[in-house]
Design goal:
14% strand, 5 strands, alpha/beta
Amino acid sequence: MAGTHVLMVEGPDDAHVVKHICGRRALGEIECIKPYGGKDALIDGIGVRLKESDIGALGIILDADTDLHARWQSVAAHLLAAGYGNVPTRPEPDGTIIDSPANSLLPRVGVWLMPDNTLPGILEDFLTFLIPDGDDLLTHADQAIASIPEGQRRFSDTKVAKARIHTWLAWQDEPGKPFGQAISARYLDPHMPAANVFASWLERTFFS
């Protein structure tokens, strides 16, 4: 597809995860991966990006957080306002691809809601899907988190997914690797089934 390929993400962690999955799977290079410093800034930026005439494909990765439907609606509203008439009422389980409207300069748009377009959650939930089969450390991490005495846990329920994956990473051969490096080190497996679905979405958005 002609034109620049742009991927909008919430933060640097998302960008590094995408870059390392693309690299490990030899998908190709996305020309511009833009972290927005949070979901509100990203959502507010969708309309501006859609008006850039040199973009051939635009990807959007957002955390679903606690309300998948509300997150989808916040994205769909911008697409409908820009002139896309084929926006589904809910995200596709394999990642949503929306073709350019006929006779327009609008780009093809791909939307992925973390962790898997069907569940509430965040990037860190997706990363737990990449933990190799037979690895029991996540169970131990869950037990460790659950054993924190009442009143001593310093993070909210919405941050449990972050605590799980960071605890798991802290117990690897080289503790505490950032997410992207954990993929390169094969602590997280970029060929797990969830990664296959995500990689297919990246291919359909940017490389087909």
